[in-house]
Backbone:
């Protein structure tokens, strides 16, 4: 029984290490007229087509997707990676959104970066 307690955390840790979620390092949000542009920088250990950061999205306070920026190929030699998404329509009352990144192995990261809108 003691052996299982040691092995289970190790297996969990090994799976988490293999997953290697992308990290949102910076976010810039700018409003032009009634629409928003989000410029997001991600850092991820892209290794090629088998494992790369393939999207980031804007979510509301409840985690519902508002908009998504797909990344259609690996960026092994371009890290960190910065991409923008414009034309995002938010209700005027929106004060906070989140940015969440995804990769092809682990899926959506559990980490959501909070962005205060001004």
Residues:
């Amino acid at each position: 029984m003691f052996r299982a307690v040691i092995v289970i955390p190790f297996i969990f840790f090994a799976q988490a290490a293999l997953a290697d979620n992308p990290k949102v390092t910076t976010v810039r949000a700018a409003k032009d007229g009634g629409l928003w542009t989000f410029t997001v920088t991600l850092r991820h250990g892209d290794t090629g087509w088998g494992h790369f950061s393939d999207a980031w999205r804007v979510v509301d306070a409840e985690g519902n997707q508002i908009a998504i920026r797909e990344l259609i190929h690996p960026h092994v030699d371009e890290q960190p990676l910065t991409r923008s998404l414009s034309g995002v329509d938010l209700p005027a009352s929106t004060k906070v959104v989140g940015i969440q990144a995804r990769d092809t192995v682990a899926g959506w990261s559990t980490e959501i970066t909070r962005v205060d809108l001004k």
